[in-house]
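Problem 12. The chain below contains 467 residues. Write out its predicted structure in token notation.
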Amino acid sequence: MKRKFLATAMAIVCTLSLVACGGDSGDGDKDPGSSNPGGSSDNGGESTQEDGNDGGEEDDAQGTAGTLPESLENADLVIVWDMTEEAWNKEVEDRKAEGKEAFNLVWSTKEAFEEKYGGTVEVIGVGWGEQQSTVIGKVNAGEVCDLAQAHDQNYPTYGAKKVMQDISQYIDVNDDFWYDSITQAFTFGGVPYAVGASASPVVISYNKTLFDQMGIKTPMEYFNEGNWTWDTFREVGLQMTGDTDGDGNNDIYGFGWWDGIYTQILAANGIASINYTSGDGTVSSNYTTPQATEAFTFLQNAYTTDKFIMIPDGDKFVSDFKSGKLAMTCEYGFAALTVYECDYEIEWAPMPTGPSGQTYDCGGALTGFSIPVTSKNPEGAAAFIRMAYELQHEYENKDQVEKYGQDQVDLMNTLKDHIKFSPIGIEKYWDANWTIHSGLIEGTPVSTFATNADEQIKEGATITLGN
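Solution.
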């Protein structure tokens, strides 16, 4: 089987290399550990980065217990957002030139909100990384700010520093419309600070053409059998790995992604990286738990012993997947079905389930909205949030069932309810990330690097939260 694979793989690689696959790989410089801004929702342009916009479809379990008010006494709002009006207008024109409709969670809702309720929605557009400083600056100065984005890098600071209000004062967080995974992710010290109704699960994306040519069962076939686990993931990965040029080193791999893949393996085993669930507002890591030991051991073996996972090298996995040298990678939502424009068929499947995980457990991108303490119109802000996600659901549902089929959309929606996610906005997080990554690929004892990373998270939490 191995010999047959190598001969076939060499032919495939040579053929695909000549094809010169097109398509933008996305913003390779974006921080892979950061959620993408939750604005534009364009399935044709999703990148290989973490994107919180894909997958806003409303699943059957999403109810409509809450509704938009018919009118508002005050319809004036001030919102800090990651896209300027100039950038939004350009996107509208670009999409129009392509014969497509543009959608942005805030800018599109601004127009609809003002039309329905009157008033003026002021959007303060700043860079993605400038949102936190802008919001905190306005709050500290006592300036009006009614809405701000909740994402992985501005929490737990927003909650710990009391920059935001308890959002349950204005929104029923138990309404089935809101994703529990988002509310839980942005709960700090027992207080929910954000809600949202859009999520992007991390899934396995794979080169179905290569699987078919090799006669190897695909990840989705394993999943449909109820047997898509770390064991079968490893089995498939080993079958798809080989040394095609005979230099003694693998140059074709079963799987590859960013150095943060360990966070997705943890999620598939039922836990997030960081723990914010304590009622007293303290922060800890899950790196020394039994589930993490299982995940780190599996991943380290895959890197150093089995060698079916490519050692991360920036975004090289993108070009390798596009050229046929990589059988499987990860993506957010349906992005892989549109971002890789090559002469082979791409399919997706949920993440393989770990021994301590449950079916559908996965990582993903979660974002939402928070209401700052200097809001002068929290009731209007709550209505804006609801309208924004209703419009997003409507926009995305226009074509996703047609593109991917109801079964795939339903499965993606199910995954959204099982995302294991934790904000990473604490000092020393990236130091801990490097400690884990280097420990995995260098063969450092799991208990050693896990303990060291845990200590770094504790130190970073003390610095960030001041306790």
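Discussion. Residues 1-65 have pLDDT under 50 and may be disordered. Students who got a different answer should revisit the alignment rule from Section 12.3.
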